[in-house]
């Protein structure tokens, strides 16, 4: 008999586990379509946060007492859960960070130390500012060159150009798995193979993919994969950097402090082993433990069915919005996830977002921290509805009605 | 400053008539539509009030110790909000504007726009109106 529990996907049952979805905003039932910014939290995660601070709070890795040892065990168990979930070889390859941005900065500083003037870092035209600015800063510090892979009008990477841009000088390709603004799913596996062929390492920004796609870092063969807990149903303030062990071992520490040391004298300090070498100071213990609970929750869901449901929602929303005069969908990649970004001719996204908010609908408006991408599409910003598997078709119908009402007021 | 009390009361009376948020915003949008446009030449960087999502340009004139404003914005709700502010403080003496506390914003329920994260930057607009008044007080 198999020990694998049967995984199911039922939207109504899933929604019941998210108390934040059962509230009214300005007297209307909340419709939460800002999942690209952050996801709501299931009851198991909320309970775990409460339980940790009520009964289990202790500092980890150093204490001799019961609570410290228990918290340490749970924190390290969580690391192992994450390792299993993303199929990393070892739990030492799972570094806890503050989030995606922190993970990218860690790599930029630490792996960046190994690079020499003239080396090249490659990113794409659809990156979030957090996968642009750390590399710009690194290039300034070390005399490197930042190169940008262009995209087409549909919001897809120009893979031929990417290949032509690769050379022996390319030391790192840092690329988003899924664009937060466009929803484009990049062909990362192909990118990784091609980058490796010239000896470059690859960092995948997984901020928008971990919650939508089953991630297998071994299968992807990426060198680094970074994500934030809060976008994958866990608490804020914690995230993960996965890195291949050998590579992490070759990199100098990022920050100095407690926990990351082996022995300290005033003359010389030796560093701790992985993963602790990269985890200076008291970490976000509750965050780490509760992120593990978020992955337990995900493990109970039929993720394939969830992904299909999300794609259905996005297609339905796009097809409906497309019938409105002046609406332009921004991001029409063949392979995309449940992000629907759009602009309306003659109407500022801020106006639409404000009126939707007053009707209980949370969307995001603006440049979504991708200003170069807005420049490419020659727009100031978009309205972005980003769906999670707990959203429903009925919510999209209500959203479309509210959108129509907003348009009538603004025209 | 008596005049501004009267203006506050008339704005409050207007907002009291609205039953819900959408009506409030309908009114703000109408204010925005009524506000005369600035020409493209007048939309200079010096007149731009920095905001995250929508841009607002404020034009100031001060004659005989009376300060007068015109403005434009690329989002209509933002434009309505600056129009509301202008209706409130237009043609005041600069020193009266500097001393004015804009407490009415809370009373009509627009305080959410005052938080620093709020992208249309009502805070920035109020600060700019006061700074303009301060400049003219000094000169």
Please name the defining characteristics of this protein:
heterodimer; A: 411 residues; alpha/beta; Aspartate Aminotransferase, domain 1; Aspartate Aminotransferase, domain 2; four-stranded antiparallel β-sheet; B: 139 residues; alpha+beta; Sufe protein. Chain: A; three-stranded antiparallel β-sheet; 6 helices
Give the topology.
The complex is a heterodimer of chains A (about 400) and B (about 140).
Chain A: H1 11-16, E1 24-25, E2 28-29, E3 31-32, H2 43-56, H3 66-85, E4 94-97, H4 100-110, E5 120-124, H5 133-142, E6 145-149, H6 159-165, E7 170-176, H7 188-197, E8 201-205, H8 217-220, E9 224-228, E10 239-243, H9 245-250, E11 261-264, E12 269-271, H10 285-299, H11 303-321, E13 327-330, E14 339-344, H12 349-357, E15 361-362, E16 364-366, H13 371-377, E17 382-386, H14 393-410
Parallel strand pairs in A: 3-15, 5-6, 5-7, 7-8, 8-9
Antiparallel strand pairs in A: 1-2, 4-10, 9-10, 11-12, 13-14, 14-17, 16-17
Chain B: H1 2-16, H2 21-34, E1 48-49, E2 56-63, E3 66-73, H3 76-89, H4 94-99, H5 104-107, H6 122-138
Antiparallel strand pairs in B: 1-2, 2-3
